[in-house]
Design goal:
143 residues; alpha+beta; Lipocalin; eight-stranded antiparallel beta barrel; 8 strands
Length: 143
């Protein structure tokens, strides 16, 4: 017990001496997402493919049928080795035109969290859960 307390205090002392900077641990799948900027989101039940552009400065542009959205994205690092990394997309502007599913709901001011699972053929699945069990849509590189 005592050793644990000393380690914790020592760690706290070291951390208090370091400059306050965010710690970023990039995952392989997130690096792939940023390296290949242009992606198509393939969804079941529609031939329409949403176009995602992930810019290096953290901005994202989404085109879905007539809908145009701008926003920003950040990475969430998994807390456990069994979890997937995630991308959080915050929607800033929305032209409120119909998307690939015919929905014209204004998404400005909202956000979405998608867990990222790397698949074959450069596919990146958007999963609903941190374990990657429900992954119904995927991104594919677009040129």
């Amino acid at each position: 017990m005592l050793k644990r307390g000393i380690t914790l205090v020592f760690g706290s002392l070291i951390m208090s001496q370091l400059p306050a900077q965010p710690i970023t641990i990039e995952s392989d799948v997130f690096n792939t997402l940023k390296t290949q900027q242009h992606w198509g989101l393939v969804q079941p039940g529609t031939a329409c493919v949403e176009q995602y552009t992930f810019k290096a400065n953290g901005e994202v542009e989404i085109k879905s049928h007539l809908e145009r959205i701008t926003g920003s994205y950040t990475q969430l690092v998994p807390t456990q080795n069994i979890e997937l990394p995630a991308v959080v997309i915050r929607f800033e502007t929305d032209n409120q035109q119909p998307d690939c599913m015919g929905d014209a709901t204004n998404q400005a001011g909202k956000s979405t969290t998608n867990f990222l699972k790397k698949g074959a053929d450069q596919k990146i699945y958007f999963c609903d859960d941190a374990l990657g069990k429900n992954c119904s849509v995927y991104l594919r590189p677009e040129h």
